[in-house]
Amino acid sequence: MTPTRHSRLSTAGLLRRQFLAGPVASVMLALLVLAGALLATGVPRAVAAMHTAALEQSLEQFPAREIDLVASSRNLPELGGSSGETTLEPEIDAVWGAQEQHLLDIRPSMPELLTRVTGEPLSALVAGPTIAGVAGAAAGSNSYQLFTAFDPRIREHLTLTGGQWPAALTDPVPGSTPLEIVLADAVAEEMAWVPGESRSIPVGTNPQDVRLVGTFAATDPDDGFWTHVPPVALEPSVAFTPEGNIEVTGLGFADPVSWAALQESDLPTTMDVWFPVLPDRIRSADSAELVTQVDQFMSQVFVLGSGSWEYWFATVGEVAFASGLPDALNDAAVAASASDAVLATIASGPIGVMVAVLVLGARVVFERRRTGLELAAARGASPGQLRGILALEGLAIGVPAAIVGGLLGTLLVAADAGPVGWAIAALFALTPMALLVAAAPGLSPLRRARSDLGRPSTGRFRWMAEVLVAVLAVTAVVLLYRRGLATSTAATGVDPLLAAVPLLLSLLACLVVLRVYPIPLAALVRSTSRRADLVPFLGSARALRDPSAGLVPVLAVVVGVSVTVFSSVLLGTVQAGVERAADAQVGADASVGGTPFTLEQLDQFAAVPGVAATAPVYSAKPTKVTADGRGRTSTLIVVDSAEMRKVQQGRDAATPLPAELGATEAEGVPVVLSKPVADFVSGADSANLDGDDFEVVGVVDGRTAYSPRTNWVLMDVANAKPFTATLVPRTVLVRFDEGTSAAEADEITAALAEIAGEDAVVVTPDGLLTELRERPTTRGLVISLVVAIVLASLLTALAIVLTLVVGRPARDRLLPLLSTLGLGRRGERALVVWEIGPVAVIALVAGALLGIALPFVVLAGIDLRAFTDGDAQPAVTLDPWLITAVLAGSLLVTIAAAAAASRIDGSVNAARAMRKEEEG
């Protein structure tokens, strides 16, 4: 029996032989498709991961109480047991179980996404404050205020550090049995309350003893639970009374069962019940849906008890939950939209270069196949068969490469960005087939045409296309400027107009290059024609008559260089903006804050060697601004304006403090307002601050170094007495001596931190700068810019190589003939450089100029404040060293690419060249 053999002349065999005859070009095109698919799937996932990390970090900046789903009531919980579904201890369940059951019954009514991002319900009740009297205390001695908290899960949130847990109080109150509590270590120390000691609080008109039986520390100080009880739970408040005496306020925890005995005590109470929001479970892509679900949940009322009256108090009934989560998510969405707009603008350039390189790669593959396909056409192959052959090879190149690239992009970035990336990868998979099939109509040796003779019939269409591109580019720029920054990224996110502007301007620059560069080249041909050296004349003449560089390679070079320069300018702008924002937020050489500071500590700060001046921020408390009967809550900031001007002297971003601010005899108290407050009172017939008149002496748009809020009222300490009872500074700004070195600044900072204590924080502009640069959004932008610079440079180099490879057939016919006439290898390489050199130089110059101009155009519609954390749009910053380095790198890449391409397969003998001339 004759064994079966696969014929090499079968269709599959011929296709295999065709592919193996020139596999390098096809492999290279496959690698381009793979890279495109990888970026298509990986980049959106990386952006989604960046947005989610930025959102989580943003939510962590909010106190948990501001974003949790909270219902707060001054009514009392309904006592009683549950149906057995709670996780409370049995004795605690007997008192708090009924309310816990109501909360558990609410949870199933939550939408699915809201349920996933919230935890199990919690509750806490705080009574007081009441005076905790010390037996035998002398007049004028320290006084103590005590809050008493009841937490059904006390042992989950507290860890005993001494003594014992409080016992449950079951006897009537007031009575002879003391109420046992535990205090945080710092609170017990400041209140001078030792375990075993009893103090009395008033319950109605009678005293009730309260005994300290132990001390505790927070099991997790960062737990959001601690934002639902007064801040004096872990750190005491020390203030001065109007009489000038020291008053210490703290909070103690009693056994939760004890509340049943205290329910009728007529103490002032506040109760919070809440579903804690878990930021690490929130994805940026779910923000819009989550906002809708939270708003829907907050619009409902839920039963938390009977709402009945018991003697002189009422139990809680129906409640509505509130949360600042929607506002926080919306703010984060605005920042994410700004990020997407910038990233889309950055990505548009490399995408353009990638498309150009793919076109060149497909042209290289087509030229490798041209001879064989033309032979098939001459032997009777129909156009459909030729297209089929090219389509099969295009699919064989594109589909496997796109699948591998897409899988790599999916595996490398653990995030979910939806199906968009795979849809773009599918386009990359089909691109080789489309480009190869589009070239099939030219497969006829009888229709060969010389490119250097031109095509006059296409001139009219070329002018029309160029005018259309120019009109589109100018229109896009005009529309961008007319629309401006205010309604751009915040409202539109990824704006097609904004993303198209760089590409349209790049395309316009390409057309200008193609129109302009023949003019100096023609002059060069005329000047070199009179010289004896052949290479300059022949090279310039060939570059003019038979240019290898058409629209596609010029587009690749112009866009590639402009992207690198634009990215470097944008990188410098963002870095400079972050530096200015860090300096403005600190407001001095150092800022010490976090805890109340004593007068002794203020004197110690000023006495540190190397400190030139200090200025405390005496108050940052809520206040109420009223305009024509409408009220608005704001933040009152109190400073000594004279001291603050000394500290902030010479700083560019210092908050203006007019001299009138310290006036004490004006009819209304002089104040500086933030712009939101100024807009609120603008045009009002009457406006007051906590009921008193004020006079506006300045308006500032944005934040100050004294408070992170943008909604504030600032006054001098000389006028603060009617508006705040206490002037305890929690922030101190410090100015160093002139000429302080970095090492000396570190020593001063360490000394300030030692004086402030372990719970305080010392911030410097350099330290905050490092923190701002490490934010996910800023870090993601910097990485994107660096990747764009590297990718655009590599693609530009590849475009130059492919351009010279496309022109290799003409060189294969010309160079061997010239070598027989005595042209050496150096002359051959020089002719290769002439093919791409003139237009590459002009394209480099055009790309550099365009890259420098683009930021001034594009940044009119991009809000960079999401990256800099500043209040103002950063000005475009041209870093000459960075731009020079990028341009030098682009030039070196271009030279290296041209040199490498000139050495590709340069050995063709004269006989073969002559045969090609006869055949072609």
UniProtKB/TrEMBL annotation:
Domain ABC3 transporter permease C-terminal: 352-450, 787-903
Keyword vocabulary terms for this entry: Cell membrane, Membrane, Transmembrane, Transmembrane helix
Main location: membrane
Record field: transmembrane: 341-366, 386-414, 420-443, 463-481, 501-525, 550-571, 781-806, 831-861, 881-902
GO terms, molecular function: transmembrane transporter activity
Gene Ontology annotations for the cellular component aspect, listed alphabetically: plasma membrane
Domain of life according to the entry: Bacteria
Name this polypeptide is given: Putative ABC transport system permease protein
Membrane topology: Multi-pass membrane protein
Location of the protein in the cell: Cell membrane
Family: Belongs to the ABC-4 integral membrane protein family.
Annotated Pfam families: FtsX
